[in-house]
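re: the backbone from monday

yeah here it is again, tokenized this time
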């Protein structure tokens, strides 16, 4: 198992945002975590990647207990996150943003090859490689954020709401790219409010409600589940 959460609890002051969840992602899987706003999805990701320290429970990655380990140490171990809101360096060029994703690497020839590979994945970024990140459209910034994470050569990629704020056409393009990245061998944990699209590209899924895992199973089974269809797909039962 590449990633395992066991009894994970996260609190802000006296408020429990994550209430003792168990979750697992096997190597090579694309797993989604869906749920409404405030369900605890982003908090879960922050606990995985060291941006917040859990109150209880454990996070194991590649057989190692990484609970509370600083983010920079996790990047060096092959764990990368694309945050909600993208978090790009707005004053830097597209190319500079991407190179920043490889700051822990010393293999410069390989970094240049990976840079060109990202430009192959996102041709629009290649066209704008000298343009500052802050002048890109929302969809282009999302491509840049994903590309920057790929530059660290992650084994596990955490994606937080990649469709947020994007036009429908771009959402489809981003999700197809996520699927192709997974096919290329990168394990992915996807946090997403667009439940249908997330489940359609995933192997398995978890449904989070009020800080707990309410449902879990194969993505195809969750798509067919009446509770999921009513609550998250907008379909009446």
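seq for it, each position gets an aa:
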């Amino acid at each position: 198992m590449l990633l395992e959460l066991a009894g994970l609890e996260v609190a802000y002051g006296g408020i429990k945002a994550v209430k003792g969840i168990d979750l697992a992602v096997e190597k090579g899987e694309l797993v989604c975590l869906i749920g409404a706003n405030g369900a605890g999805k982003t908090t879960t990701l922050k606990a995985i990647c060291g941006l917040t320290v859990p109150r209880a429970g454990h996070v194991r990655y590649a057989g190692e207990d990484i609970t509370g380990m600083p983010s920079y140490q996790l990047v060096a171990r092959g764990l990368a996150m694309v945050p909600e809101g993208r978090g790009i360096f707005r004053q830097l060029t597209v190319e500079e943003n991407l190179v920043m994703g490889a700051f822990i690497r010393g293999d410069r020839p390989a970094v240049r090859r990976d840079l060109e590979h990202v430009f192959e994945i996102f041709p629009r970024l290649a066209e704008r490689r000298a343009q500052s990140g802050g002048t890109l459209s929302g969809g282009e910034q999302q491509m840049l954020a994903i590309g920057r994470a790929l530059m660290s050569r992650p084994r596990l990629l955490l994606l937080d709401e990649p469709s947020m704020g994007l036009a429908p056409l771009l959402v489809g393009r981003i999700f197809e790219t996520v699927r192709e990245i997974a096919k290329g061998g990168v394990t992915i944990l996807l946090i997403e409010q667009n439940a249908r699209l997330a489940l359609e590209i995933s192997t398995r899924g978890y449904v989070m409600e009020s800080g707990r895992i309410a449902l879990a199973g194969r993505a195809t089974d969750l798509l067919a589940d009446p509770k999921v269809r009513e609550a998250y797909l907008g379909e009446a039962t």
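Residues 39 and 210 are 5 Å apart (CA to CA). The chain has ten helices and ten strands.
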